[in-house]
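#lab-general

N.A. 3:47 PM
ok so I finally got the sequence cleaned up, no stray characters, all 502 residues accounted for. can someone with queue access submit it? mine expired

B.Y. 3:52 PM
send it over

N.A. 3:53 PM
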Amino acid sequence: MKRILWIDDEIVSLKSLVFLLRNRSYYVREVSSGDDGCDILQKEHYDLVLLDEIMPGKDGLATLKDIRKIDASIPVVMVTKSEELSMIDKAYTQGVSDFLVKPLKPNQLIATCKRLLEREDLIGSEIPKDYTQFYQQVTQKMNTSLDWKGWKLLYKSIVSWGIKIDKYPEFRTLHEEILNQCEHEFTKFFESNYLDWLYHESSAPPLSVDIVPDFVVPHTVDHKRVYLIVLDCLRFDQYLSIRPMLQELFKLEEDFYSSIIPSATPFARNAIYSGLFPREIATKYPELWNPEENKHEAELLEIQLRKFNLQSAYLKVKNLGDELNLIKNIRNFKSQQIVSIVVNFLDYLIHAKYESSVVNELIPDEQSLCSLTKLWFLKSSLYELLRGLAKEGNPIILTTDHGALLVRHPSIIYGSRVISHNLRYKYGPALRCDPKHALFIQNPEEYKLPGNIRYGIAKESSYFIYPTHPQEYASRYQSSFQHGGISMQEMIIPCITLLPKT
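B.Y. 4:20 PM
back already:
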């Protein structure tokens, strides 16, 4: 039985409506003051609060504030005689769920309570039927020749359904199965098309090298300044976890692009800031290329923007000190037309999963990763900065250099002592790997990769381990978040344009 707490100083005059709710099988507790209501909520569980706005002593808004300290999630319906916008705005900021206007109409009261109390049950009754239909549609689409647009739409729907069924654990195994099938088919699609993307621009999706010219520069025509914010290692589901906060501030235009390979920071992010593929950077600017680090993004961005006759500024948020100074530092860049900010927190977070037992327990799966991302964002200086930039009115491009995925299947890789350390991609002069688990590149020039060496790029959920002590490596990194390989979760990347609300 759903439980309703009704707080109103004139509750005696509402007996007929209380009876009506009870007749609909709701339990209703009546109290006549905000203080009494808060005392009850501290001792008993309720599913909904009906709260009068105007009461002697503690009024509705003050009571609402106290209720939110007791229970941040319980739905609260404000019952008011006034439809004054300032009061409504204030109530919404304090977490009110809905409004009812006096004199109360029985049908309106019942409809509101039903919507808030039975919404989850109503949705839950439709989930099995809708998910079965979705599963069949995905299976059918995988048997067709999907292009880039088809794959990004399919990935978007898979991620969205993954969030939707989070409360229904009986579907998780089935959803993981369909995701794995899609990753397998996407890998085959990528291997068949990537070289064509590199050499035939008309058939290619936007790639890492296209972010600045395609998404950033066009906005400089109509705006004094454009911001490019790169959240290192942001998956699409993590973006969806922070999207509601962004929607409150901006009008959002959502798109996707494909990371280059390896889908890792030194390669993909350098490609974003230079507008060049890694081999081109290494050839034209060897002093700015290092496959193990990203120390020259500001210089690479400056070089790229010269051909557009644009000036840029660059900030990197690597630690708490950088974050605390973010807003102060951004004020120093008022004359630059493009201001770019790199935030490394999410990348540090996924690496900490296998380096720290505490963090590993905090983020055992994708759902936990998204929850922690949302919590961080709400408390971050970045969110505070975005609230300020929303008033400035200039466009913001929010994106990432790559995503990440949970690795499940160890694959032995062979090579000399001169071999890179990454788990999802390797390079070295004498590299050998299983082509079932990795894209093996013997001619890096063809893939616009630097050096006369070999590359191994892990497919799907594989990760590389060494032939010496394989069990030790396998157990250490099993079910950790990694990036650099070929998968939808690493390579189909959100690129969001944040525009001022008009």
